[in-house]
Design a protein that fits this description.
The protein contains 12 helices and 19 strands. With 448 residues, the protein is of the alpha/beta class.
Length: 448
């Protein structure tokens, strides 16, 4: 019996794949260990979405190669998006890796490893057929037991001009509603209090299934057949957020008033070049509808600056949009060419240094907006899901409000009161920072 060490890189969707890999290994009776030094087999689940992720993955692989030099009997297995994207190039440049497995091999990792050990592969590259997990797929949670990701689709049909996901992950494949409800019920039985729905585009859920299956129907089923108190929606395409969805969120407190809507840009010209299928007028109408339906909602978005053809006036439109709408959470990325993406061949490429300058400027704009937004919580009592003891000091607890998503937004430092990880408590905010909040637990008559 071999021992395994797994490294997971990339987004939450990739983390679910890693949890499925762990499930495959443990279901087959394999042993998973905490450090590469203890392991016979070193597995790394990679991200290959953007160039920085590619560079991080290669660096991690080379670290494992060094470990193998110290212990030549160890095996290295590289899996995930990087393999799906770069295939033959990896084979030639990383001869130390024993097996490369594409992004669809998560659920059968144990079986593939056994085939490797029996010498059944004449080639070091395996690209399994397209795969869609189900509630019956073994999965080992790596998040804290009170929160989990629910991956509702695989792939994407949007084909944004800068994005490689359709090539890497294939076309949209949605899981059936009853299967997602079963998985949510399993997670609830394990103690999950916050369920975050994830996909490449959550609003596209069900478009491939027909029969009137869509995101609202899924949410209604989750509300009806589980009692999970916090259900969070992530990765909502602006064109898919309609009145029906907003009305459902407004009417159901368990659907958190938090909308993650990646806009990417606000310039008509740049959005058209990005193949995003909406314009600035659509975004203005969307934000007005959200304000009308869910005035307390927190909005998160991302912007991509330095896109080919972006002029200073296009970039300044984004800054003006941010100043006017004062969104709660904004991520900003500098564009870089991705091999194989249509935008890599566009003319009028923006110099890398200029893209970084524009990114840094918008991040400064958002820091000021966020600091003022945070002040709106001062003196308020808000629900907080306690994550546990603060990693920086045992004198504080740490948690998140309904308006803060795990791993991407700020947090709440709890400096008074007692609470356990996984509890949802009331916290009165006494101090605000640029991205974080500080407060104490209040109970009983203190709530008034």
């Amino acid at each position: 019996m071999a021992s395994f060490h797994l490294i997971s890189l990339g987004c939450a969707k990739n983390l679910v794949d890693s949890e499925v890999m762990l499930g495959s290994l443990l279901a087959s009776g394999e042993v998973v260990v905490d450090s590469p030094e203890q392991a016979d087999v070193l597995v790394i689940n990679t991200c290959g979405f953007i160039q920085p992720a590619v560079e991080e993955a290669v660096e991690e692989i080379l670290t494992l190669v060094e470990e193998k030099k110290r212990s030549p009997a160890k095996k290295i297995i590289v899996t995930g998006c990087l393999v799906q994207r770069y295939r033959e190039q990896l084979l030639s440049e990383l001869p130390e890796v024993d097996l490369f497995i594409g992004s669809e091999g998560a659920a059968d990792l144990a079986g593939l490893v056994k085939q490797l050990s029996r010498g059944e592969f004449g080639h070091r590259l395996v690209l399994p057929e397209r795969f869609l997990m189900s509630s019956a797929t073994p999965r080992v949670m790596t998040t804290p037991p009170f929160r989990a990701w629910l991956k509702i689709t695989e792939g994407c049909n949007n084909r944004c001009s800068y994005c490689m996901i359709p090539m890497i992950r294939g076309p949209l494949r949605s899981r059936p509603i009853d299967d997602l409800v079963r998985e949510a019920q399993i997670l609830e039985s394990q103690g999950v209090k916050e369920l975050s729905l994830i996909a490449q585009d959550s609003t596209a859920y069900g478009h491939d299934l027909g029969g009137g299956v869509h995101l609202v129907r899924l949410l209604l089923a989750l509300l009806d057949q589980t009692a999970i108190p916090w259900i969070r929606l992530l990765y909502l395409h602006p064109k898919g957020v309609d009145d029906q969805l907003l009305a459902l969120i407004a009417a159901n407190p368990r659907l958190l008033p938090y909308l993650d809507i990646p806009m990417q840009h606000v310039s008509e010209r740049i959005l058209r070049a990005m193949n995003r299928h909406y314009g600035p007028a659509d975004l203005e109408r969307l934000l007005a509808a959200i304000q009308q339906r869910i005035p307390e909602a927190a909005l998160r978005t991302t912007f991509l600056v330095g896109f080919p053809g972006e002029q200073e006036e296009d970039f300044l439109q984004v800054a003006d949009f941010m100043h006017r709408h004062r969104l709660h959470h904004v991520g900003v990325f500098a564009y870089s060419n991705e091999e194989g993406a249509p935008s890599a061949n566009f003319t009028e490429q923006v110099p890398e240094a200029e893209g970084i300058r524009r990114r840094d400027h918008l991040l400064e704009v958002q820091a000021e907006i966020s600091a003022h937004r945070q002040e709106e919580y001062l003196g308020r009592t808000v629900e907080v899901l306690v994550e546990g003891v603060c990693p920086e000091t045992e004198l504080l607890l740490i948690g998140r409000t309904r308006f803060q998503a795990p791993e991407v937004d700020g947090c709440v430092y709890i400096n008074e009161g007692i609470a356990s990880a996984g509890e949802i408590v009331q916290v009165r905010i006494s101090e605000t920072q640029v991205y974080d909040l500080v407060g104490g637990v209040v109970v009983g008559e203190d709530l008034g």
